[in-house]
């Protein structure tokens, strides 16, 4: 019998906090300064925001203090480093890091950030032309960006779920993040690249320590629209409850898994009967507008 490993956020005590882990300011290539972008995210109902300017951290402590206990602004950095199989750079988002990172390659950067108490998320693998081999050779990162708003609206390369599945089927268990990568750039044919996608984190309170602990344990789900209300995992099945959906999909290895489609009205619940040979299973909830919510993967240790 395979051992089920799933840090289920829906069964944890605490509260849901909405946040974006990837945003830029005028300190690198963003259109707004840190206060301006933070005020906008707070007004849109977000609870926290990481400022992740390219190559250098932005000092956000005083800014975060000014919001009191209602909104948290957190330090971060985006590192453009190394070379992929295609000759492109890796982009790594460092969370809870407030000083420059001096590293010669992606693995050294991950090691340095983690040693300092932060975490690394690999940014927009599809946009960066990364392959599964590029991702497999790195160790110690928290997850990958499975949806990136800016990459989606600018060059139609926002979705990296195929990269995620390629990792998971190779037993590289990692979390998936939906992010804005906000620069506040827009035009006559492009919506603003902010407030479109987010993570919902289950944490005891709105503090840096509590949020970072929940991220480390995978106690969150990602979305650019739908809500996931509950997930029940047993030895025989996985059941999900959501906001009204056009489809609910259970995604696993090869051609297995199952998709439940609303033929007429919306659906809000679906149950997948486990076959016993799943190595991983993740859930996608898609609404009628084509927007999606994603759970983190369930791992079945010892499965064939």
Q: How does this model look, in words?
A:
The chain has 304 residues and is of the alpha+beta class. It has 2 domains: 3-223, TIM Barrel, CATH 3.20.20; 225-304, Immunoglobulins (Immunoglobulin-like, Sandwich), CATH 2.60.40.10. 19% of the residues lie in helices and 33% in strands. It has 7 helices and 18 strands. The chain has a 15-stranded mixed β-sheet that branches. A hairpin with a 5-residue loop joins strand 13 and strand 14. The longest helix has 10 residues, at 34-43. It is globular, with a radius of gyration of 19 Å. It starts with a strand and ends with a strand. The mean pLDDT is 96.
CATH second-level architecture of the largest domain: Alpha-Beta Barrel
Low-confidence stretches: none
Q: How many H/I helical runs?
A: 7
Which value, in Å, is the CA radius of gyration?
Answer: 19 Å
How many domains, as an integer?
2
Give the amount of beta strand, in percent. 25-35%
Distance between the ends: 10 Å
Helix/strand-derived class?
A: alpha+beta
- For CATH, the homologous superfamily of the largest domain is named as Metal-dependent hydrolases
CATH class of the largest domain: Alpha Beta
CATH topology of the largest domain: TIM Barrel
Instruction: Give the strand tally.
Output: 18
Main sheet characteristics = 15 strands, mixed
| Average pLDDT figure | 96
Keywords:
TIM Barrel; single chain; 304 residues; 19% helix; 7 helices; 18 strands; alpha+beta; 3-stranded antiparallel beta sheet; 15-stranded mixed beta sheet; Immunoglobulin-like
